[in-house]
Each structure stands twice: as structure tokens, then as C-alpha cells.
Amino acid sequence: MKFCLALVLSLMSLACAAADDLAQRVPAAVVSDPVRDADHPPRSAQVLVPSHGSGMNALFYLAGGAGPHPTMVLLHGFPGNEQNLDLAQAIRRAGWNVLTLHYRGSWGSPGAFSIRHVLEDADAALEFVRRPEIAARFEIDTRRIVLGGHSMGGFAAAAHARADAGLLGVVLLDAWNVGATGDALSRVAGAERAALAAREFDDLGNSLNGATSLSVAEEIVAHRTEWNYLSWAAGLVRRPLLVVGASEAGGAENRRLADAVARAGGKVTAVTVESDHSFQDHRIGLAATVVSWLETLAPP
Question: Considering the entire predicted model, what is its pTM?
Fold first, then answer.
């Protein structure tokens, strides 16, 4: 870890010390399997998470041991080629349930994809894990729910967290500032915007239904002001926040968000990793950082 977020006065030393501690610790769950509990083995369960009339494809990674367990909802990015399932497995080994899902219109989930729908789908996922019958069936401790997301998923996690005081914490992994991208796209139009969108969003393949690179570009241009997460700091101060940025991608923008939340009085741990947007050469380090931070919220 090369960077500690510079905060003002005492906040600076506290945040940097916390980030250093996370960088130096490698919890056992990151590098070794737990002792198997024969009575309560870990398992997975496919579920359909309802959102606005559609059932989103989702998978629970359910922790071993007697429950109820703390639970993370882990949101993937755009379009979702990287799902961070290795991270989900490490978090489960640490004693947490993890719910992963595909938004409406993505990767076979019915419906049409849009960024607006992603925000609604994140809300629906949190409502789902808190339903009494779901919490009982999957041994979820509804008092200990963390929302995490990578890239667009981090954007959606931050958007949801502003109005959800019941979260135990929030994890943002190189969160995409959709509004800032919308600002950049707004400076061009017509064929030039279409070409820029095609270059920016060049990994869609057949992953999305009802959306193209240009339709997504037009949507984020239209909402560029309200979707700039730098204006959300005041709404993110009510629960602990872990921000992990990537130096070769959104690290600077993630640093600005963490700084803004800390200045507004939030409890922020911020780390910038020397890696790309998917942390492709830092997977074990990423898991160590996230799991170490989670253990400060819910000790194993």
C-alpha cells in the first residue's frame, strides 16, 4: 500500500494508521480454508431477487458454522465481466454470507438494463436480505449487513447508502463516478459521442439486454449532475466506509470522495492500490484489505 489518504489534523493520522494496519494484515480466511463444520457446512444457494416485477439471477455464498451470520451484498460493475467472486469466497471463509447478483437486463436476468435500474436493483437487494423469511432461511443477521460494490457497483452502493441508516458499513472498490463520465461525454455530441461511448464501453459483448454503449452514454449525460458522487458526502457519514481506489483507474476520484466524506465527519478508511481497475495483480491484497476491515465491524 503506497498511499494513505491525507485528512485534516487528527483525522489524517487516524485514517492513515487504519489503512496501514489493513495493508499489513493477511487474515487466515484470505489464504487458508477453515475447519469444516460438519453440522453447518458452507453452501451456496441460487435465488431470484425480485425487482420491479423481475427476478434477478443471484447466488448466495453461505458461511459455515452456526448462524445467524453477518452478510455482505456485493454488487458488480459495468457490465459485470469481473464479479469479484474470489473476494466473495474469502469473505465467506471469514464467516460472512455474501449475496451476488446480476441486475435486470444483465447476464440473463430478465428486464432491460439501465443505470437507473441498477440503482433500483441495489435497493431491491437490500430489501430482499432483510425480509424475515429470507433472513431466517439463510441465517442472516440483519443487524450486521454491509453493502459493497466494484466500479458501477460501488457507485450504486454509495447511492443506496445515503438513505440506509441500518447498514453496518459500506465498501467501495474503485467506485465509478458516473456523473464525472457524463460530464466528459457531454462535451461531444452526435457521431463523436457515439464513437467515444463505443471506446469507453468496449466490453459489453452479449451481456446486456435493452442497452447499448450509446444508450448508456446518453443516460449518464442526462443525469450527470445528480450522479456525481462527490456531492453525496454528507449522506455517507452515518456508517463506516472503506474506499479502495486503483492508481491506474479511479484512484484519484475515489480519494476525493473519501476526503469529502471525512471532512463531513464520516469514519473513512481509504487505501489506494498500485493496480488497474480490476486489481488484477492485487487480488490477495484486495481480499486482505476488505476482510481485515470487515473484522473490525464483526470480529470472527
Answer: 0.91
